[in-house]
Amino acid sequence: MTLGATHIVNAAKDAVERIRETTGGMGVDVAVEALGKPQTFMQCTLSVRDGGKAVMIGPSQAGSVGEIDINRLFRRKNLCEDKSDRVIWRQDLPKVVKPAESGIFNLANAVSSRYKFEDAGKSISRSQ
């Protein structure tokens, strides 16, 4: 919780319901979807408050189809952004790095382990 989050939600349970409970029914200002899966895409869009922002950074598999409530998206002025494109990352990366360099975010806990290049397989296995 050192990177700005105020709460943690277990997505294996009803994440949207838990988020709504935690925010008094309002939803969050910004929800970030990082897996690129239809289920988490829908959870992300349903978790934001009216006028909130759903940001997709997870690249989805070709042919993946996600559902969205179009009325919720447009009438409530929710904004969905796709941040998985490399060009966007080039534009946005400096905006992320600058606060990290200034110490606003405590990144000490962001790296749980380090591996030598020849141990890349161990790193991948551990992340799954």
Structural features:
2 domains; zinc; three-stranded parallel beta sheet; alpha/beta; 128 residues; Rossmann fold; oxidoreductase activity; oxidoreductase; 5 helices
Structure description:
The protein folds into two domains: 1-84, NAD(P)-binding Rossmann-like Domain (Rossmann fold, 3-Layer(aba) Sandwich); 85-128, no CATH class. Helices cover 38% and strands 15% of the residues. The chain has five helices and three strands, in the order αβαβαβαα. It has a three-stranded parallel sheet. α3 links the parallel β2 and β3 (79-82).
Concise account of the structure shown:
By secondary structure, this protein is of the alpha/beta class. The protein is 38% helix and 15% strand.
